[in-house]
Amino acid sequence: MVFSQEQKIYIVESYFRNGHLIDGEWQYSIEACFEEFRLQFPDAALTYNIFHLNLTQCIQIFRETGSVDRKKGSGRPTKRTEEAIANVRQVMEEVPRTSVRRLSQQVQLSTSTCHNILKKDIHLYPYRLQAVQQLLEADYPVRVEYCHWFLNTMNENLLNWSFFSDESWFYLDGYVNSQNMRWWSSEKPNFFEQVPLHPQKVGVWAAISRRRIIGPIFFNGTLTAVRYREIIQQFLEQLHDDEIVNGYFQQDGAPAHTTLETLNMIQEFFDRQIISRNTAIAYPSRSCDLTPCDFFLWPYLNNSIFQHRLNNLDELREAIVAKIDEINNNPQMLANVSTGIVGRVRKCLEVDGAHFDLLSHLHPAARQFCRSTYTITDITIK
Question: What InterPro entries does the database record attribute to this sequence (predicted)?
Answer without folding.
Answer: RNaseH_sf (IPR036397)
